[in-house]
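B., you asked whether I could sanity-check this one before it goes into the benchmark set. Here's the sequence:
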Amino acid sequence: MTDFARTLQETFGEKVVTLAGEIPEKYWQDWAGLTATEPLALARPSTTEEVSGLLAACHAAGVPVVPQGGLTGISGAAHPQADGIVLSLERFDTIEGIDTDAGTITAGAGVILETAQNAAADKGMMLGIDIGARGSCQLGGVLATNAGGNTVVRYGMARDHVLGLEVVLADGTVIDGMNTMLKNNAGLDLKQLFIGSEGLLGIITRCVLRLHPNPPAKATAFLGCADTASVIALLRAARGALGPMLSSFEVMWPSFFHFMSKGTGLGSPLAGEHGAYVILEATGFDAEATRGAMESLFEKAFEDGLVEDGVLANSVKEERALWAVRESPAEYETVLGPLVPFDVGIPIAKMDEAVTRIEAAVAKAYPTARSLSYGHIGDSNLHVVVNVPEAGRAQPEKEIKKIVYGITRELGGTVSAEHGIGAIKRDYLGYSRTEAEIALMRTIKAALDPKGILNPAKSFDAGMAA
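And here's what the prediction gave me:
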């Protein structure tokens, strides 16, 4: 293996390939918190030809390859193997062009999401994908995990923004599918195979994404509701009153909001405490109409008893303040400590039962545990993070997963709403997919990656977990 790594470096040069012993520690793990592992070598190609050559060499030698983007994933999909190569796409960081007539942006997989957002905004357009890690996640990783985020309720998952992809298969074959047209019904839509596949079927190197006209008007409200039933009724009312203007509908249960608002010192926009907190955002092309629609919804919601208290932002600064606690999970390590995170999907009608049962079951098993619940309720996404204070770094991960994923399965939910399966959820994939579905996934994997070198032992791969 060491000889192979040296040969790889001799072939592609020291600028592209770095050998073990000199690999920066940031490439040893992602945000999943798995034990840091230095790979055999780190490859940082800057051209599709280099990616093709690297994969062809690894395929011939049967050497594992783990693709990496911005390393912001929490499922361990980008976690390296000691006997394998890490292939970072960070040098594919060029925005090749923005076509305002077609409404597209063409970019490398290593472009930071926020960079793409800003480039689109400079042209009067918007990229409808938005997640908390926007300042560090890369487009390739966003697509490989089919990320969701704050605006899914209006613009959809990452999959819904993709027109074309360039992908390199395990044996080095380049699939040039850089379609720029909204309509292209010629044969199978192959790009869909790679979106959300976590690098198990091929490595995304370039992409063509849809853009939308950038709505200049925004109205943001922060509301306190009595309970989850009121939140769901408010969502129904917001959809009816705002229609396509509804761009975000975020909910924070008291477990999350009270703990994080106090722990971070950010405080609350509201004077009292409530059974649930909602950030509701509308965007449009007429400031007066957008604001008016939000105010009308606000007033009607009060009249109908759906809202106990609330505030509307009057400036960009106030908008950011209303979002501050919701976007505070980056402070978990400081405020909460080591934790076990969950990204599950729950049918909206069962969301209240899910939160109630999960928090109660964790508390019963671990009386000192802190379970924080929040999420994008408009798209059925629930986030839960659990910390058992006395456990320190040795959190009872397996036991807590059994509780949370068990309840999720009973309620007809999914163990992964937007962060993929990776390494840390692979044992629970069967909770959300049938045996026949998983078998078909593995059949496709075997056809595209017959030697199983791409991200082995992750997600639906049949290989043994390390």
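One thing to flag: The chain has 14 helices and 18 strands. Otherwise nothing jumped out at me.
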